Inverse folding.
């Protein structure tokens, strides 16, 4: 009994010891993503997109930096969608795995503390999806690939005023979700600035993991707005739209980038058709690299990628571009990290699949937003592009 | 001489950990794991007062942690840094080193006061009704924090790293590690003194039989009040440390899930066993972090042995299947937790020579 | 204003129905075993997933079937399969502990862990994509003035009331119900009377879990988006509802569920919705402070 146990122990140890000593020249990049917890789908899509990119590069023999080919090694660390786990995951990637850069965390709840850790430990980090200004503010080592809330809110306001001739609006947002709450507040301030105080006739919220919105929607429908603004995650959007229709609402909805998920249409069905939302890229009618990415992803994993997958792809590409811009890899992790940061900050312009972007001095991208319409076929059709 | 063995050992432990991390012999990841172990020890040991020794079923421990975290952080930010909401620093940042323990204590005190609010209904309500009061308290605390924009609301509250930097500017040492270890020692010492004192025997009497205890002239209401206050106060202490390790807090971190983790640690260790709580907190944290390394190995092993199709990867998702499964199995084989209601010295009687545990 | 009050009463009735259905399951198990079955919310989630798989199976296997036939086939199958899940949990996790005479709080923690296993096991096996429940019955919206009702909402409310009456009948009027009450009264004397205690407990779990399965089916028809964590929060809240009603009492769970549903809906209707949880839970706390054993609970006298 004891002998078998020790045998198993020795075997396990051997496996544990052997794995880190990988062969050849590799470059490690860490991914700090939520594979479990509230939003596992976001983590999954990030991982798949990154995996696709890695197979591309490694399939072509590796990434060429300064005349030498390096194979990429991506390490996916689960942050359980919790702030403290994001910190330990980031520390594990930095200290144990000695990664050169970290992609993620995705939502701001983890990206803000995760960014702090990366900035303190001088490791470049790029968050694909976080929209909270605090993530990158005064942190030279932290970048992001998504545009910020203060830009997206006015896009929605202007579009709705033009398209629906809206004078009155209503907002329903998720209280415990800082993305949703922040965007709702920016929208309200901007709409009231342009239409006078009181023009947002209902400003309602709901809690974490709620699925019944009937009371809030009853209040909203009774206030008779011209349209309803829903800065919410797509799974909640599907429920809200259905329940609003049950309560007799026939007007339009306007959404934000969190709508842009392939699952929206399978979950929401016909109820979502004809509504608009602002997002990073329009999947339907996409051309060039964007279209190619969507088609390959769909073929490989069986569903259309959401914006987070596209943003992770772009974020990782930015890191790779930075790596190529470094000139050469010295092998000293600290020095390489520093060179990488300089290289990323020095990137003039990236032509990503979510649009062209360049970084401002805070590490935030300057890029365009698009407004898409959900067509009768359930595709996200490009309507308008808004650039800062 | 033997009386001093334990304090000396603890002192050596503290010194060696601090010097190891000072000379960067152990990296920041290990340091953070050590700090989370310390915080989990404080949490599980403090919840053990109410749930273990007193036999009540409180499941809102994270609420008090949240209160402590926010009070300590707000105080520190208010006193030592320039903030867009709280205005300029009231004291020079160099003072942070000396005031930090005080702010921790202040957070703990406010948390203890909040704990007394929960304790008062417990005079009348018992058992599972009390469980509800604590769960509801947890919901109320998080939803209050979400509604206060001054402390960030759902966006969370940050800036605590500046306090750490201020401390490190005065003396270059891994201060958070020191504070966490000291607080852990303090908590364990305090709880040990408390439950082994004549006064503290009252809470064990309440666990055995509340009516009988009352007749034997134990002031049960006072006992409950004090037990709740000590327990939630220590949770507040853990919260304050937690906030400064992360440098960022968010009401979502103190939800019912965090409370569940505290409960698991207490019952895994055994009700009414202090060493059990300490052990289970260490084991739980190590398990949580260790699986990060083990799961990829399992994945490669299973693919190597062709047990799994190539398309399926064992991902980190399985971590939260494996951990509860291990706990369920532990419960099946040791239905009273790892230690039951025994202490280490009951199992290894020789230890008694080195320290007194009445 | 009047219209929206009527509308909100209907909203509250529908939302309360779900709390009631889940709280009834909690209360049945608690009444017999004094065990807080924290896995119940996740059994509800499993019920919803089972309903999803059964319904899509029938829709695919016999594509010509009209929706209501699929529904009548899905309903009993879901309830039976969910009951199997509940009984399995009882057999492999709770019963051994009970036999060993563990403190009941350890059983509670085991239940909590089983819930986590169900949630995350689901996530690990089925992936992170959410499932969309197929529409089995055509939705009909009845509108009078500004008040809208759907046929589904009426069905939900009616089935909650029906389930309550059925359980009340079983517990108070039948022999097996008498045995259940007897066990909750005295666990040690009952086996001496020749009552097979394990059979009764299994029966209780069958009843409770099949109600969770029913709730899962109805819930996924009303809110057709399934994700692995859907049962966690509603489970906690239904537990709160059951306790406020007076845990262990069928009427208590029923009215507690509706009370919580109404409080949540009406708070949103009359106060800023950001304060919903704050006000709703404060009201519940006040109720518990004034009635420490819940609305229908009877204070137990403790003997020395």
């Amino acid at each position: 009994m004891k002998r078998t146990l020790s045998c198993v122990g020795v075997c396990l140890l051997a496996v544990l010891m052997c794995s880190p000593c990988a062969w050849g020249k590799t470059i490690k990049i860490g991914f700090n993503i939520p594979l479990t917890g509230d939003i596992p789908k976001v983590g999954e899509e990030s991982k798949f997109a990154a995996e696709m990119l890695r197979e591309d590069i490694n399939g072509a023999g590796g990434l060429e930096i300064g005349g030498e080919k390096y194979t990429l090694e991506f390490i996916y660390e689960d942050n359980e969608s919790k702030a403290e786990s994001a910190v330990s995951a980031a520390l594990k990637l930095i200290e144990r795995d000695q990664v050169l850069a970290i992609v993620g965390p995705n939502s701001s709840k983890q990206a803000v503390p995760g960014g702090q850790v990366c900035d303190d430990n001088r490791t470049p980090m790029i968050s694909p999806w976080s929209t909270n200004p605090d993530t990158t503010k005064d942190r030279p080592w932290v970048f992001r690939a998504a545009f910020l809330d203060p830009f997206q809110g006015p896009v929605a306001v202007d579009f709705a005023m033009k398209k629906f001739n809206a004078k009155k609006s209503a907002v329903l947002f998720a209280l415990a979700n800082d993305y949703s709450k922040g965007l709702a507040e920016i929208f309200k301030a901007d709409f009231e600035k342009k239409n006078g105080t009181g023009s947002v006739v209902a400003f309602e919220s709901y809690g974490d993991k709620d699925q019944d919105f009937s009371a809030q929607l009853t209040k909203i429908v009774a206030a008779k707005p011209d349209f309803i603004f829903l800065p919410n995650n797509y799974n909640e959007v599907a429920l809200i739209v259905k329940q609003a229709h049950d309560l007799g609402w026939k007007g339009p909805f306007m959404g934000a980038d969190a709508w842009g998920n392939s699952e929206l249409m399978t979950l929401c069905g016909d109820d979502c058709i004809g509504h608009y939302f602002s997002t990073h890229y329009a999947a339907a009618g996409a051309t060039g690299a964007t279209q190619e990415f969507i088609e390959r992803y769909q073929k490989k994993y069986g569903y259309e990628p959401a914006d987070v997958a596209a943003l992770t792809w772009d974020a990782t590409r930015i890191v790779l571009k930075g790596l190529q811009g470094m000139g050469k890899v010295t092998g000293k992790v600290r020095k390489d990290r520093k060179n990488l940061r300089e290289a990323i900050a020095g990137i003039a312009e990236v032509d990503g699949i979510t649009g062209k972007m360049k970084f401002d001095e805070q590490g935030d991208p300057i890029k365009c937003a698009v407004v898409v319409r959900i067509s009768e076929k359930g595709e996200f059709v490009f309507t308008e592009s808004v650039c800062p | 001489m033997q009386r001093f063995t334990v304090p000396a050992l603890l002192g050596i432990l503290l010194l060696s950990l601090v010097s190891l991390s000072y000379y960067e012999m152990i990296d920041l990841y290990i340091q953070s794991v050590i700090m989370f172990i310390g915080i989990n020890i404080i949490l599980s040991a403090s919840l053990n007062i109410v749930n273990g020794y007193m036999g009540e079923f409180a499941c809102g421990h994270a609420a008090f942690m949240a209160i402590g975290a926010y009070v300590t952080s707000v105080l520190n930010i208010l006193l030592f840094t320039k903030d867009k909401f709280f205005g300029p620093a009231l004291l020079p940042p160099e003072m942070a080193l000396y005031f930090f323990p005080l702010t921790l204590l202040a957070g703990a005190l406010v948390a203890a006061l909040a704990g007394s609010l929960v304790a008062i209904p417990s005079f009348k309500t018992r058992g599972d009704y009390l469980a509800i009061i604590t769960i509801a308290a947890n919901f109320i605390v998080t939803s209050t924090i979400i509604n206060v924009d001054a402390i960030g609301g759902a966006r969370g509250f940050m800036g605590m790293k500046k306090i750490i930097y201020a401390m490190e500017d005065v003396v270059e040492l891994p201060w958070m590690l020191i504070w966490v270890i000291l607080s852990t020692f303090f908590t364990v010492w305090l709880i040990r003194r408390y439950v082994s004192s004549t006064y503290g025997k009252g809470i064990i009497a309440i666990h055995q039989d509340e009516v009988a205890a009352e007749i034997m002239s134990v002031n049960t209401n006072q006992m409950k009040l004090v037990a709740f206050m000590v327990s939630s106060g220590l949770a507040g202490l853990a919260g304050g440390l937690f906030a400064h390790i992360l440098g960022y807090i968010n009401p979502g971190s103190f939800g019912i899930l965090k409370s569940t983790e505290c409960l698991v640690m207490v019952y895994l260790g055994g009700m009414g066993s202090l060493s059990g709580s300490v052990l289970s907190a260490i084991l739980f944290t190590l398990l949580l972090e260790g699986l990060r390394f083990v799961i990829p190995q399992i994945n490669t092993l299973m693919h190597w042995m062709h047990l799994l199709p190539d398309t399926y990867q064992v991902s980190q998702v399985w971590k939260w299947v494996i951990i509860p499964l291990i706990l369920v199995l532990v419960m099946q084989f040791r239905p009273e937790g790892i230690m039951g209601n025994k202490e280490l010295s009951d199992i290894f009687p020789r230890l008694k020579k080195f320290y007194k545990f009445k | 204003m009047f219209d929206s009050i009527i509308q909100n009463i209907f909203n509250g009735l529908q939302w309360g129905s779900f709390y009631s259905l889940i709280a009834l399951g909690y209360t049945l198990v608690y009444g017999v075993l004094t065990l807080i079955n924290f896995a119940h919310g996740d059994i509800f989630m499993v019920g919803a997933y089972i309903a999803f798989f059964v319904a899509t199976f029938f829709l695919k296997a016999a594509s010509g079937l009209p929706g209501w036939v699929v529904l009548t086939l899905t309903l009993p199958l879901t309830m039976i399969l969910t009951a199997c899940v509940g009984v399995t949990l009882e057999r492999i996790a709770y019963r051994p502990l009970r036999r060993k005479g563990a403190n009941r709080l350890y059983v509670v923690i085991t239940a909590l862990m089983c819930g986590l296993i169900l949630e995350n096991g689901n996530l690990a096996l089925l992936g992170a994509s959410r499932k969309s429940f197929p529409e089995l019955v055509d939705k009909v919206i009845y509108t009078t003035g500004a008040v809208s009702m759907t046929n589904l909402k009426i069905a939900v409310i009616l089935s909650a009331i029906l389930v309550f009456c059925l359980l009340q009948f079983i517990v108070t009027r039948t022999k097996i119900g008498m045995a259940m009450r007897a066990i909750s009264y005295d666990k040690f004397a009952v086996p001496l009377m020749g009552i097979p205690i394990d059979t009764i407990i299994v029966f209780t779990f069958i009843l409770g879990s099949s109600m969770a399965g029913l709730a899962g089916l109805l819930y996924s028809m009303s809110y057709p988006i399934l994700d692995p964590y859907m049962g966690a929060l509603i489970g906690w809240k239904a537990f709160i509802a059951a306790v406020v009603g007076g845990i262990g009492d069928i009427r208590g769970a029923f009215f507690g569920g509706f009370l919580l549903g109404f409080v949540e809906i009406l708070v949103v209707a009359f106060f800023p919705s950001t304060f919903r949880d704050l006000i709703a839970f404060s009201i519940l706390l006040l109720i518990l402070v004034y009635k420490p054993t819940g609305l229908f609970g009877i204070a137990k006298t403790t003997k020395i």
